[in-house]
Amino acid sequence: MYFCLLNLMIMSFSMQTIAQTQSAYRYSRSKSNLLFNAVTCLDSGVFSLSHCAALAGGSKTVTFFYNEDDNRCQWDCMFLYNENCTTLCTSPWSSYELEHVRNAALHKLPSASSVLQNAISLWSPAYATDGIIQTTGTEIFHSAQEVSPWLMIALQEISTISFLRVYNRDDYRFHDVAVEVSNSSEFVQCGFYKGPGKARQVIELQCDSRTVAQQVRLKIIQGTENYLNIPELEIYIM
User: Is 3:29 a contact under the CB 8 Å cutoff?
Assistant: First the structure.
């Protein structure tokens, strides 16, 4: 698939004026089929692909879509998982994502605060990184009920985090989740998702600023009777 790398400055679009800011987002055309459909998006006519990317970067969007035939842009979308996307589900739109090298979480063995009923064969943390997306039933990661359940993945090396992608279960328990990172024993919060996530929603998360880390943790930080359910977690690095 043609790979088009864009070196783009984040811009804000007001009426017909594009104002440049100091931050930079780098996007590239999606390298594989996206296993989700866009349900709602911001939608606008644009002058060019660069203009579309500027709108996406200005709203901290991970994935955006560009229709070259009509010069239209869709960004800041809500996605739902679609297991039937074995071919490009976005045609005639082309999809672009924040630049990344690979999913560093794939086949890593995560650790967790707990496992529901200690039933590792049903709810192991390893199911969250096995590359198999199950939004119903067992063979997903499922914590016990806690105040602040968490799931942590140690990357192979210290890496620049591009974005995270979480495939939500067919429920609404993914809420008030902090993205925490560490290069030692101390974790610091670099991002937050309020939620709650919709059933089967695909949630894309970023740190608030450029982040280099070796450990990444998702942790519910509000509420008292919480479960953390994650069918699949992807961590894309530079």
Answer: yes
Beta strands in the chain (DSSP E): 5-14, 17-29, 36-45, 63-67, 72-81, 94-98, 102-103, 111-112, 141-142, 150-167, 177-182, 188-193, 201-205, 211-220, 229-230, 232-237
Residues 60 and 154 occupy one common structural domain: no
Indicate if 117 and 46 belong to the same structural domain.
no
Domain residues for 168? Answer: 103-237
pTM for the whole structure: 0.88
Q: What pLDDT, in 10s, does the model give residues 116-168?
A: 999 999 999 999 999 999 988 999 999 999 999 999 999 989 999 999 999 99
Domain count, the chain: 2
